[in-house]
């Protein structure tokens, strides 16, 4: 069977599940007692396992299976979450992620996970003693003992046995819980088991075994048996002795203390009426209802969170996946429709038939609604990028031995898909930077009188035609002098320049290529995480990065991004017979100047603007427009454009108006043309070039 | 046994040229062209072909032939080579022929003023008609153009 057609679906869904696993694990870490979250995690892991097994990715399925075992114990309150378990589960998630990654890249999804699997198994085994004490299972009778061993992984003691253990413990003996595994290919299991028992009896006393000694002697057990044992022997010594018996694969032992024993007695008291009730019930099935209810009562504490979790899961996802190419096609088709609409409007106004005018007007309204929807389709909440950060920050803080809270706000803010795809890496860099170099180590924070837990805020919000993403830490801030020292040493700026530089300009030095690799300022910007790469990436998306910092208080990186890359607001202008579009974002204002106001200075032209003079550039000469020259006019329309702090005026013939335009590339064939950033299709079907104002200002 | 290929035939000056049909996306009558400044002379600008902006080049200009006024015979042949779409302005295009690959011969040094490097070969259609097959990859090769421009400077 060809599984390829399902592969994409598998990859998508696996990634979803891994993401939700990551999120829920983090949630659980902050409230470890919430069993409702464990339920959700368990379900996700289970689904993942099922999918992986169906697709034949065995390693993936095997690892998830082990995770599930651990989670199952937690879910049934047989195991309390603790740091080691969290770490192991997170490691497992990482391994799963890399496997899915491998599959995405056409690999087999194979990986060596034995180490992780072992530690997961160790968790399942290691914490078995308290687990066993809570296990609620009917006393082993002649039913299928093997099954009970596998499922309950524990045995129950009666009062007498307990008091024996308690007594011997108080007398200085140690009570152990042992589980012995016999090799699969063993032919004479009963014999081997007998040998183990024989040996144990010589050095102590077996209080109780599961299955019972009788069953073991009759070979009525699977591969393992467990027992409570009292001895004065050393644990390690005992272990080597048991393993010395041939065909014994493994043995685990857990030391019991007074507390685990007490727990045991409590559960035993609760469970005994239930188990005793089960037997008579078998005769009358109707009576089984109260039994079920009673067992539910026993598990009362987790019931409430469980219900809450179910409610959260209940809202089904009402989305479908669409190939991004199809959206692009839709967008293209729509812009053609827009062009036809304008033609129709023109024709209708010429023909002047009321019915036609009405129809065309209605179509105009429908199509502008349609436009909104088509544009929205490409918008994705930034959450799709943000959602991997909590995990990343957690790991990072852990490895740096810092305490950190990541506060995310505005994750629902939407951005164009193309921006979303590109913005992830720069944000990772900035976040790492904040965690690594912004937030101080715990000791330093306490010394500075701050809370030992650092706070990194990641926020996104809309403002006008832009989206801002800000990363703010309450760390040590940036020290201007340190940057300048290093910059002067590197020859980036001179001593004189450094005195007059504004703070903002100094901070921008951090983004200079090669600057970030400087060891000198390792306590500020670090081991070359490549802030210059961050800046160039963000610029290529049409955005800016600004840095704000208060030494000792913290640093804020503010990333400004255009809402979308495919639709921008632009001013349409005419020069001779040609039309051009200038992005509104770089226009400061428009105006008219008289030709006598223009001054010639060293071959370039200047015009007065506010309190200063700015250069006047002739679009017709730069673009060699054949049929227009503003020098022949008495008055010239100008567009004042801006690049950073620098201004310039562009002389044009006249303004057509403001418009939302669809950005198109000029095609692969043409080389990059200075001053032109792309093209758009106007309402009349003609192509207009989009001016890149940045190229006009040096 | 050589395979048959279908070839779009178009005219440039006095010669007939051919492009394999699967490289041709569409053939259009003249469309409004938006001039693109600061590029090669033979790049006439860009057109809007059903919502896609495509650069067009005058094939006469590209081969350093004297350029003509456009008339109602003029066609734009949109070719698609390795996902690069370009329109060729040609004098006329009005024929599709089947051609046996075996009949394409190595081109002479210069045919009709076009250098051999732009040509794939020459095929005899009948006694009078000679079809010149274009090497599209070379025709669209920009680096070679910019080198030429540099020499001229």
Automatic annotation (TrEMBL), chain A:
EC number: 2.7.13.3
Record keywords: ATP-binding, Chemotaxis, Kinase, Nucleotide-binding, Phosphoprotein, Transferase, Two-component regulatory system
MF terms in GO: ATP binding; phosphorelay sensor kinase activity
Domain CheW-like intervals: 567-698
Residues of the HPt domain: 1-103
Residues passing through the membrane, by range: none
Pfam families per the UniProt record, alphabetical: CheW, H-kinase_dim, HATPase_c, Hpt, P2
The protein's name in its UniProt record: Chemotaxis protein CheA
Upper classification of the organism: Bacteria, Bacillati, Bacillota, Bacilli, Bacillales
Automatic annotation (TrEMBL), chain B:
One term under GO cellular component: cytosol
SMART domains referenced in this protein's UniProt entry, alphabetically: CheW
Superkingdom as given in the UniProt entry: Bacteria
Domain named CheW-like: residues: 4-145
Keywords: Chemotaxis, Cytoplasm
Localization per Swiss-Prot or TrEMBL: Cytoplasm
Gene Ontology BP annotations: chemotaxis; signal transduction
Major site of localization recorded for this protein: cytoplasm
Pfam families: CheW (PF01584)
Protein name: Chemotaxis protein CheW
Lineage, broadest ranks: Bacteria, Bacillati, Bacillota, Bacilli, Bacillales
